[in-house]
Amino acid sequence: FIKDQACYDIIPLYNAMKKKVLSDSEEEEEKDADMPGTSTRKRKEHQPKRRLRNRAQSYDIQAWKRQCQELLNLIFQCEDSEPFRQPVDLIEYPDYRDIIDTPMDFATVRETLEAGNYESPSELCKDVRLIFSNSKVYTPCKRSRIYSM
After folding, report:
1. N or C: which end of the chain has fewer CB within 10 A?
2. What is the signed CA dihedral for 5, 142, 147, 121, rounded to 10 degrees?
3. Helix locations, the chain, DSSP H
4. How far apart are CA 122 and CA 64, in angstroms?
């Protein structure tokens, strides 16, 4: 798929593919504009795009919550998650709150999910990212185990 084996940055590839898709869809729209249609009825070619957009916005709330719960269960089973399963012990790390403004751990994420306090999967994702960003801020040593996870 990636022709350049030395490629290490996916963003230029993504942008090129996005540009191609957008230009292809513009060409299709130009072809559709030449097709006869009525003024009161929209052409069928444009309806699937709208339906896809609506599907992307509406998702089964219970399904994503179940999937996130399953993911958290897998994370808790993983040995590497051990330092992040519970809140940081402030007795063991008394300066933690001086460095980290918003602590987060997987137990808190699980409790928040079970309490129904996440409105979307992206909110849960934001908290999971916070766990790792906090650990990297608190442990700046690049040789630390956290950087290999």
Report:
1. N
2. -100
3. 11-33, 47-57, 61-77, 96-99, 106-114, 121-138
4. 10
Q: Given phi > 0 = left and psi -120 to 50 = alpha, else beta, which region is 116?
A: left
Residue type, 55: R
**pTM value surpassing 0.85:** no
User: Would you state the structure tokens that stand for residue 42, as one six-digit string?
Assistant: 């929209």
Tens digits of per-residue pLDDT, 36-46? 554 544 444 44
- The residue behind tokens 């690049």 is 142
Tell me the domains of the chain and their CATH numbers.
86-147 (1.20.920.10)
Angle at 131 between CA 127 and CA 132, to 5 degrees: 120
